[in-house]
């Protein structure tokens, strides 16, 4: 075989390899959105920022969470339509029009490869938020209607423990070291600290009126809680469990999320239906000052940051959209229509 023919065959082989392998490396992730009034979960592509799917789920899905390994999506809802009450609740959040649950609720799991529902697990009354431990063994669901957290064995797909909290538990996150779960008690003015090993509430931290969601910096240095009735973010020392300071933000702050480098905290300011908030406050975690306020859409509620810290995704509850925020440039670069009343949001790792 002459040298020219060998060169041509080699070039063809290289092109074939690029065509075959290229899409694997270029493939993006997915953003999942709980469309509370549509009883669906919207799926958004992280590269095109386009909606690529809609998954029917139970009545009133409020929160979604992708498991750390990215294989399952967890969704809190009111169960199948024929069994759900569909009555409004979430009365503890000031003037928010959350649809919610008054009977025993559920958490459903969705296979992220197929976007199909694979399990339906009964939990407590009025489930709000769900998180999954880093090792993937347990999921934790806040039950606002009975002041508890359900602990779900993810393999057995059943509740194995019920933990008492403060009044109307809402947002929940696991500490970076995996040892604690913090719960924002919306009507109690406190954050419950749960020991993950013993599955007991060990303390409640007094924070202020209307705590809606908690967060941590990935380095474990700081904890936070949003105060929906005081328009503030409370900064907490996780080691001493004491309040360090308060930061003024927009009206009715709900979800909060720290960037992967632990330098910034993003705060979604929802406002009310009568006077919607439409911004995300960006707090510098060295100076504890709001360094930017980015205009999004009406009713900015949920916020999540992707793993490289480049983009944040914000649900606009009253606009039925998701804003894509370029974190570095501090501006919205895309707006994606989703279902009605989008609330919780999560992105694949």
Task: Please give a structural write-up.
- This protein has 1 helix and 28 strands.
- The strands form 7 sheets. Strands 3-2-1-28 form a 4-stranded antiparallel β-sheet, with no helix packed on it. The chain has a 4-stranded antiparallel β-sheet with strand order 4-5-6-7, with no helix packed on it. A 4-stranded antiparallel β-sheet has the order 8-9-10-11, with no helix packed on it.
- The protein is globular and about 45 Å long.
- It has 349 residues and is mostly beta strands.
- 50% of the residues are buried.
- It has one domain: YVTN repeat-like/Quinoprotein amine dehydrogenase (Methylamine Dehydrogenase, Chain H), CATH 2.130.10.
Task: Briefly say what this structure is.
The chain is mainly beta and 349 residues long. It is built from 1 helix and 28 strands.
């Amino acid at each position: 075989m002459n040298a020219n023919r060998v060169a041509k065959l080699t070039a063809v082989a290289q092109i074939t390899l690029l065509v075959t392998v290229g899409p694997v490396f270029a493939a993006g992730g997915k953003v999942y959105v709980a469309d509370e009034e549509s009883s669906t979960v919207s799926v958004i592509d992280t590269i095109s920022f386009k909606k690529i799917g809609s998954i029917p789920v139970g009545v009133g899905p409020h929160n979604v969470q992708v498991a750390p390994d990215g294989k399952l999506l967890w969704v809190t809802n009111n169960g199948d339509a024929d069994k759900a009450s569909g009555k409004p609740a979430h009365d503890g959040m000031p003037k928010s029009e959350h649809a919610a649950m008054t009977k025993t609720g559920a958490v459903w799991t969705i296979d992220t490869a197929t976007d199909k529902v694979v399990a339906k697990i009964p939990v407590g009354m009025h489930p709000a938020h769900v998180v999954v431990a880093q090792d993937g063994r347990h999921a934790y669901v806040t039950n606002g209607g009975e002041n508890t957290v359900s602990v779900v064995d993810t393999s057995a797909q059943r509740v194995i423990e019920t933990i008492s909290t403060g009044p109307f538990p809402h947002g929940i996150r696991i500490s970076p070291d995996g040892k604690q779960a913090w719960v924002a008690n919306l009507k109690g003015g406190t954050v419950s600290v749960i020991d993950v090993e013993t599955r007991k509430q060990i303390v409640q931290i007094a924070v202020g009126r209307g705590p809606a969601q908690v967060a941590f910096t990935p380095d474990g240095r700081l904890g936070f809680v949003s105060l929906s009735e005081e328009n503030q973010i409370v900064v907490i020392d996780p080691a001493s469990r004491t309040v360090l300071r308060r930061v003024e933000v927009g009206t009715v702050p709900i979800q909060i999320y720290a960037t992967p480098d632990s330098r910034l905290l993003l705060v979604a300011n929802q406002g009310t239906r009568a006077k919607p908030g439409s911004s995300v406050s960006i707090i510098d975690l060295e100076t504890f000052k709001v360094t930017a306020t980015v205009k999004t859409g009406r009713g900015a509620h949920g916020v999540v940051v992707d793993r490289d810290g480049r983009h944040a995704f914000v649900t606009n509850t009253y606009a039925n959209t998701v804003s894509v925020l370029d974190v570095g440039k501090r501006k919205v670069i895309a707006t994606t229509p989703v279902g009605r009343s989008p609330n919780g949001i999560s992105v694949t790792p």
